[in-house]
Amino acid sequence: MKRKLIIDTDCGSDDAMAIAMALNDPSYEILFFTVVSGNVILEQAVQNTLLTIEMAGSYEPPVYAGCRDMLLRDLAFAHETHGKDGMGDRGFAPKRLKVTEGNGVLKMIEALKNSGGDIEIVTLGPLTNIALAFKLDPGALKRVARIAIMGSAGLGAGNVSPLAEFNIWQDAEAAKIVFESGLPLFLVGWDACLDAAMLEEADIRRLRESGPLGRFSVDCNRRLLELNQERFGRPCLDMADPAAMAAALFPDCIDVCDEYFCEVDATPGPGYGAVLVDRYRFSGKKPNARLCSQLKPEKYKEYIFRTLEKRR
Ligand code: RIB
Ligand code: CA
What domain count does the chain have? Predict the structure, then answer.
């Protein structure tokens, strides 16, 4: 029996690599995608998701548009990291697939309500769709088996402020609702995709030379490659969503993971968007999330190659 997934995405270039990995993991069946603004505006993220499904060369689940706006905050986008189109500004576009009519938030509620409690959700963007679904029908959302979230700085530093990671920071009010929901949360922090988990030049070359999908998954990350050449003096890829997807679908690659009480700071100020991980249990509160902060690099990269190296 394949495990059932819903993937919620703000499809930028690292989402694309993660989505292609999931579509090529035979242990899972992606029921559908729900899309949210984040890296790019909703409509562009929908097109990028459709493109990625076409490039993945696997089955083609429906793609539903979800929230275009955050609950309160203005959209910031991440064009400097993913390009204006979110896919490296290479002019990529879907050739055939179209978005499916229907609201992603309502589709998520409907699927969970009619499920046997065996559907997992993986989120790769701001938590707006999840928060809205929970507010609209908490009973349905409580039937989710687990929500794996690419979100938080983990046990490290933020990537949009000293403490905050983009997905949480872009809609901290939504994240606060999700973290206080009591739903089974599995967090993969930004720190899980750094250091030894970075894709280095040899990994990038191997992917690019492995076939059309591997080449696409690198080429759409062109902007991030250029940015990292400046930042680190070498071409490397810190792939947050692929790290989260690998930890969610291939737990053999998890190295450090523990449960903590985590809360979101949604107050205006320097801490906005931070996920406070109560590492030393000061709050005395029961843990509400499992947090993966480190992967086993070899296992993680093995999973990426195994799912993306398609020789057609
Ligand atoms: O902070 C990294 C996360 O923000 C990734 O999911 C990236 O795609 C952006 O959504
Ligand atoms: Ca993302």
Answer: 1
Ligand 1 centroid – CA 139 distance (Å): 28
pTM here is 0.98
Distance 167 CA to ligand 1 centre (A): 6
- Asked if residues 104 and 35 have their Cβ atoms less than 8 Å apart, the reply is yes
Structural domain that includes position 72: 3-308
pLDDT tens digit at each of 312 positions of the chain: 899 999 999 999 999 999 999 999 999 999 999 999 999 999 999 999 999 999 999 999 999 999 999 999 999 998 889 999 999 999 999 999 999 999 999 999 999 999 999 999 999 999 999 999 999 999 999 999 999 999 999 999 999 999 999 999 999 999 999 999 999 999 999 999 999 999 999 999 999 999 999 999 999 999 999 999 999 999 999 999 999 999 999 999 999 999 999 999 999 999 999 999 999 999 999 999 999 999 999 999 999 999 999 755
In the annotation, is 203 catalytic? no
Q: Which one of the ligands is nearest to 149 CA?
A: 1
Closest to 169 in 3D by CA, of 124, 134, 123, 126: 126
- Options 10, 14, 171, 265, the catalytic residue: 10
Q: Is the CB of 263 under 6 A from ligand 1?
A: no
- The CATH number of residue 148's host domain is 3.90.245.10
211 burial via Cβ count (<10 Å: 0-12, 13-18, 19+) = middle
